[in-house]
Design goal:
Strand content: 15-25%
CATH class: Alpha Beta
Largest sheet: 6 strands, mixed
CATH architecture: 4-Layer Sandwich
CATH topology: Purple Acid Phosphatase, chain A, domain 2
Number of domains: 1
Radius of gyration: 17 Å
CATH superfamily: Metallo-dependent phosphatases
Distance between the termini: 24 Å
Number of strands: 15
Shape: globular
Oligomer: single chain
Structural class: alpha/beta
Amino acid sequence: MTSFASATFDQRGLAGPFDIIGDVHGCADELEDLLAALRYRVSWPQSDGPPVVAAPHGRRVVFVGDLVDRGPRVVDVVALVMTMSANGLALCVPGNHDAKFRRWLDGNDVHMTHGLDVTAVDYHRVDAKRRAAASAFVKGLPPYLWLDGGRLVVAHAGIEAGMIGMTSRRTEHFCLYGDTDSGKTSHGLPVRYNWAARYDGAPLVVYGHTPVATATWLNGTVCIDTGCCFGGNLTALRYPEREIVSVPARRAYAERKGPFGLPPAR
């Protein structure tokens, strides 16, 4: 089990406003399109150097994780998120793909499936220093973020109300994978359950992980993974405005293994 920087999850002193962006999965072209729609400016002065980013006054991006795998520009996505984070323009939580990516970077034996093979090709083109920096960045991410005086939580796959304000291995696992069991679907994916169907917490929870056709609200939660890498959209939630902003994928980069939509409740 990957451990993250759990001590940094409590950011209740940060009030926003935030632009919370769903699962990017290496789709850097679409990420640039979405950031432009949100009035951020991104440029790449050098082809092999970091980007330069300017944000609208006072706003900050929060990434819900799954930066890597499937899309064609994984290295650029990670570089953009790392640069924005270092400059105070972004926060990020890890997704399950990011956790597996870090294990691969650190030399662990992992299955090269679900797009990690694409990421590996991208990262074999960069030097060891950049790979080490990417590993350290992912390792330093909190499992979830508790923001805006406790009124907002961002977690990759979701979080139960009783977990908010706590850290544990179970909480970390839930934030990465959601409500699952040991079963597999016909496509070899873990069986998922709709944890949001029973969420009864006070904070708004913004999450991704499960592709939906459009941003889906339920019981004080909203899923904003709209399947960009599968030919859907890349979506942001503007907070506190609760405005949804989406841009279409330029094309499908990976084969979808099931229909869009939240799973059934347990």
